[in-house]
Design a protein that fits this description.
The structure holds 3 protein chains of 3 kinds. By secondary structure, chain A is of the alpha+beta class. Chain A has helices at about 55-70, 85-100, and strands spanning about 1-10, 20-25, 30-35, 45-50, 75-80. In chain A, a hairpin with a 7-residue loop joins strand 2 (about 20-25) and strand 3. Chain C has one domain: 2-enoyl-CoA Hydratase, Chain A, domain 1 (Alpha-Beta Complex). In chain C, about 45% of the residues lie in helices and about 25% in strands. The chains are: A alpha+beta, B alpha/beta, C alpha/beta. Chains B and C meet through helix 2, helix 3, helix 4, helix 5 and helix 6 of B and helix 2, helix 3, helix 4, helix 5 and helix 6 of C.
């Protein structure tokens, strides 16, 4: 397993601050994403744990797109990956933010 | 989410809970952000999950208070490790204090998690004792079985300790999975790829016909919900009574009769036949309500 | 088997019949009669064995209830390679038979019978779950083999190299076979040595049974299972 943390600047913020949300399942080719409130207002911290070693650049690109696409300032995102493709990662991240945004799962 | 359109077999463990319980009534205990993951999986360099593959909490179903656990079959086959098993056992202990109408176990598990096999085996034996203790205190435990991993290994035993076993047609219940038997004893003993055969040995209709499951329901979450609600209503009226010596003596007699009657049986066809299903080809296609009706008439 | 019975109960102090893989009878433990139920020859536990075990437990409960005598202790002598792997047994619902045995164990416990397991051979997986692990107290003889799966099979299933498993097994009791590992995790209460007086060990063990399941706490104390107790407590009380 490879583990790393990436911190992105993000000024966009969600208006709500609901309870932590998890999205997705840790099964082959899939991942789970946990979204909760972070420590720093203008940045988004993303922790990644993945079995696919040596793909940090691709992760960085995928996460960068996500941070630019979504208002994630002040959030802490944690990912347990089980070998998901970049497309699946992006999808789950967006779903997790949607779930976090709404009060209901 | 509309529980009528959600397929139980395909739904995730979380979705099953959401669709099963009253809207917004679920409160998770030990939620994902507590991060009680398995250190044993991590040590073996395997991915971990925040809830270790089981979600536990409290909720209401049709207004009745329940404690509920839901296993995620897609994470390591829903297998039981140290943390996973401890969450299930803790929930049983909580029931003794909280006294819900019932504890619901949404079982979707192949049994013991091999990465932490000793811890898993011990956890299951602790869970077995905890389920019995909870039920001895008059709180019934329901096993709901309809996921892709079924209820096998130790979870197959735990399921059968439960006062109610609600299963769907695709739900499977047993001890050793077909793949395990095939691997050890050969394909002649059990061809795990013969889906019709697997279904006739372990499937929901077979288990209902022989009385191993107490209720057979349709594949959608709504059917699981309405059966659960109905049972909760019944237990809220009349409390669970322990089987006692007389009850277990009667079960002993029934099980002995089964081993004698089916001494040579290696296919569920004979059990369907004895249950009054003359057209064996039709059994598999028979709608659930028709199957239940005919079984009711045969009993 | 007689050599084992003599060492456990004393010469002439046991009346145990062996019927295939099943054994049942009575023996003297200290100054009391105990009910002896068990298996031998590395039994593969099937529906029929389960019924014999359950039937013997129910008979003991029934007899003591009928004669108004204090419930006798029940000693399980465990030797099992696991559950029988067969299509026939699965069709019958072997898991349901195991559940029935477990319910009978719990009934006996609730009626005041102490339940003691002595592992005299193998204690494997489902066969161990069926009744050995249902006891109040579990003791293992020196040659006891306790496991779910051996490491080579585990390597194959988990796709983790065998050599790596061997190394990791040194650090953690959590997956590798061995009675010692189960002791550290709290599921085996006592490991008896070759030169111990097993008769005295058994008498002593009988004085230490408790109705509460204290295995997780024991595993925590012994450092072999550090999460089971606190996580269960968290869920139970949070």
């Amino acid at each position: 397993m490879e583990q790393f943390v990436m911190i992105f600047t993000s000024t966009g913020r969600l208006t709500t601050s609901p309870t932590p949300r998890v999205c997705g399942v840790v099964s082959s080719g899939n991942l789970e994403v946990l979204v909760e409130s972070g420590d720093a207002e203008n940045s988004c911290r993303i922790d990644v744990s993945t079995p696919a070693e040596g793909f940090r650049d691709i992760w960085k690109a995928v996460l960068n797109d996500f941070v630019e696409r979504q208002p994630v300032g002040g959030l802490h995102v944690t990912i347990n990956d089980a070998g998901a493709t970049p497309a699946v990662v992006s999808l789950r991240l967006d779903q997790a933010i949607d779930a976090f945004r709404s009060e209901r799962p | 989410m509309n529980s009528k359109t959600v397929n139980y077999f395909e739904a995730s463990a979380r979705t099953r809970i959401t669709c099963l319980v009253d809207t917004d009534s679920f409160a998770e205990i030990c939620p994902p952000h507590f991060r009680h993951t398995s250190p044993h999986l991590a040590r073996l360099n395997a991915p971990v999950a925040f809830d270790d593959g089981v979600i536990v909490g409290r909720a209401t179903v049709a207004g009745h208070s329940v404690l509920i656990a839901s296993q995620e079959g897609k994470f390591n086959g829903g297998a039981v490790g140290e943390v996973h098993g401890a969450k299930l056992r803790g929930l049983m202990e909580r029931a003794l204090d909280e006294r819900p109408v019932a504890v619901l176990l949404l079982v979707d598990s192949g049994g013991v998690r091999l990465h932490e096999a000793n811890a898993g085996l011990i956890a299951i034996s602790e869970l077995m004792r905890a389920v019995l203790r909870t039920q001895a205190a008059g709180i019934p435990v329901f096993a709901l079985i309809g996921g892709s991993c079924g209820a096998f290994g130790g979870m197959g035993i735990v399921s059968r300790l439960c006062a109610e076993v609600v299963i769907s047609e695709q739900g499977r219940l047993g001890l050793s999975g077909p793949e395990v038997i095939e691997t050890v004893k050969g394909v002649e003993e059990f061809d795990s790829r013969d889906r019709a055969l697997v279904w006739r040995i372990t499937g929901g209709k077979l288990r209902r016909a022989q009385g191993e499951a107490t209720h057979l329901v349709d594949e959608d979450v709504h059917s699981f919900r309405s059966k659960t609600a109905q049972l909760l209503g019944a237990y809220a009226e009349e409390k669970l009574k322990p089987a006692g010596l007389a009850g277990l003596t009667e079960i002993q007699r029934q099980l002995a009769e089964r081993t004698e009657s089916y001494a040579e049986a290696r296919d569920g066809r004979i059990i369907f036949q004895v249950s009054g299903f003359t057209d064996l080809e039709a059994v598999a296609l028979m709608p659930i309500d028709a199957f239940n009706r005919q079984l009711g008439e045969a009993l | 088997m007689n050599i084992l019975f003599d060492r456990l109960f004393g010469t002439g102090q046991h009346h145990i019949a062996i019927d295939g893989d099943f054994l049942g009878g009575t023996a003297t433990v200290g100054d009391r009669e105990a009910v002896i139920i068990g298996t031998c020859n590395k039994a593969a536990i099937n529906c029929s064995t389960s019924l014999k075990v359950a039937g013997a437990i129910l008979a003991a409960v029934r007899e003591d209830e009928a004669t108004f005598r204090p419930p006798r202790p029940i000693v399980f002598l465990v030797d099992t390679q696991g559950q029988e792997l067969s299509r026939h047994e699965e069709l019958l619902g072997l898991n349901g038979y195991f559940a029935h045995v477990a319910e009978c164990c719990e009934l006996a416990r609730c009626q005041g019978h102490s339940l003691i397991t002595v592992i005299h051979g193998e204690a494997v997986s489902g066969g161990f779950l069926a009744f050995g692990l249902m006891a109040d107290r579990v003791c293992a003889l020196p040659d006891a083999q306790v496991r779910v799966m051996d490491l080579r099979a585990m390597a194959k299933v988990t796709k983790i190299p065998y050599d790596k498993l061997l190394v990791l097994a040194e650090e953690s009791p959590v997956f590798a076979p061995g009675a010692e590992n189960y002791w550290r995790m709290g599921a085996i209460h006592e490991l008896w040595r070759k030169n111990d007086d097993w008769r005295r060990c058994l008498i002593a063990a009988l004085t230490q049974t408790e109705q509460e399941d204290g295995r997780a706490r024991l595993g925590l104390e012994r450092g072999g299972r550090e999460l089971a107790a606190p996580i269960a407590a968290l869920v139970a009380t949070a």
